[in-house]
Amino acid sequence: xxxxxxxxxxxxLLMTPVLEAQNTSVSLWEENIEQLSMDEEEKNWEDxxxxxxxxxxxxxxxNVTTKHELEQFSFLSxxxxxxxxxxxxxxxxxxxxYELQLVEEMDKHTIDLLLPFVCVHPVAxxxxxxxxxxxxxxxxxxxxxxxxxxxxxRKGYQKNYLGPAxxxxxxxxxxxxxxxxxxxxxxxxxxxxxxxxxxxxxxxYYSIYFLxxxxxxxxxxxxxxxxxxxxxxxxxxxxxxxxxxxxxxTVDNRNSGIRKHSSTDEYNYFRGAAATxxxxxxxxLSGFYSHRxxxxxxxxxxxTSIYKTGLHRTEKEADKVNAFTLQLMGGNITYEKxxxxxxxxxxxxxxxxxxxxVLRTYAKYNLQGNYFHNVGVDYKYRWNRFTLTxxxxxxxxxxxxxxxxxxxxxxxxxxxxxHRYYSHDYWAMFARSFGESSAPQNENGWYLAAEASPLAxxxxxxxxxxxxxxxxxxxxxxxxxxxxxxxxSLYSPKRNLSMYVNYRYKRKERDVAGTDGKVxxxxxxxxxxxxxxxxxxxxxxRTTVDYNHFHSQGQEGSQGYQFTQSCSYAFSFPIKxxxxxxxxxxDDYDSRIxxxxxxxxxxxxxxxxxxxxxxxxxxxxxDVNKVFMFLVKFGQTIYEDxxxxxxxxxxxxxxxxxxxxxxxxxxx
Length: 668
Hints:
Mean pLDDT is 89; it is low at 1-22. The protein is 12% helix and 48% strand. It has a domain at 1-124. The chain is mainly beta and 668 residues long. The protein has a 24-stranded antiparallel beta barrel. It has a two-stranded parallel ribbon with strand order 1-2. Strands 27-28 form a two-stranded antiparallel ribbon. A hairpin with a 2-residue loop joins strand 11 and strand 12 (302-306).
């Protein structure tokens, strides 16, 4: 065994540095986030990207890792996680990270993805919760501030917007590994007043959080703002991680529980206290309580709408601030031993006023009233290479079911089938799960997917989703059905070279404009993408070509395309630059395209474009030393088919839109 370990170590020394594997891992996460962002629901990825950054700078020690820690890496299968833990248990502590090659089921591609997030250090004995002296001496502190300056004037600033056009945020965070995290976040959106009017205390939004982990039997304690996710999200989930992408890693929710909320998202969080206690080694009990004010419209002592954007720029928007309160309480109990995991989650929540929104016909079964509850049972069982996962939930109205079966045929080959049944009248305000839409209501479907690596350097993905809506949907004035098919071929001949082609076909039904829902026709959409990524040494080049075709049955179709070229370079001195240019041309909004671009820390920007024009961005990062980092980004969009951009208060005179974003980070 020692000779074999030595041979593995020497062979790996001759391979490309680990930094290139890091690019592969980060690219996988970015690809999934980019694909999940390409829908109508606005998502905030700050918490997820911050955790990704922390994992890169504070890798997990394989010799003392746990199943829960490894489950956060979505590209690891349950069998691979079990084999890693078994290897350390049987053979003792690893001497080098490259011993991962000796772990059964661990292929080269998976090892490349895992390397940036793990390390190997000898451990004499497992340490418990750190002492106060260590927390004060070795804890890491970070101050992050951001300022956005627009080089244009929106119509709203003439008389409606109450504050300056600049965006500003300030974040302070303290972290000692995974044991203790706390901090405060403050934000002012563009157009909101600063230390004036309804923002006399300065910023428009504040978030304070405190998160403690692994203090004996107390596994988690959260105070202030926090997030929750249990089971498959049919009862409660404030995550956006589940959805349809060109990967099986976004279908199953393994990283559930209580987490901090440090982002600038002003809607998807709870405020109060939450805790998880280990009753016995295989049984954990969680409890939580939240009391927070929310934005909305009050008419006749009733809540008629809930305001989710967090924008308070005009008097009308400011009148919606803290219009009502919401209280929530609940708990979860989870039993996990060997290959079986069973949990039960229950929540009870109520408003201080009756919620009576104005419901159109398509939304007549949506949530309304004062008091609500949801209860769900989730499970997971693995037998050899089969894994069965699911959850069943019910509320004050309706119920929902989600079950999936995954078969790991062998390394690099997986099959998945998912069945979901979300009744048309299921009320669950905080649920978010897998489906055509993230809300588990009014949807049934079967989803089949497969991943395979039959050839060296090649990986294929294919999926087919057959879904139906038992009741009306927005712009679909009848029960309807649809099909969503996806295929991707990935080729990676070298560590620093990869390319893929993917294709997506979607058929849905939609009301014909101007017919008041009396004429409904099938719509067909075809999306095609090619992306090439080449990363020699300190340079990264990425080329993306998209084509989108949309048409309704019997009507003339529309099409759109875009070409994007990005270039990033890290100099030998502490400066990194990246530039990106995009040319887009679409016939209408239905044929719009998406073009993601790298930007500030803990942000991910994926704007959509329609019409004809050009987008350019340039970003420079300067790490002055280990303490100070300064980042500046300039972006400009030029439209060739219009003289004005936007409408209403957001109207911009002219065909150009340019912004300057600056960010300063101080590490202590």
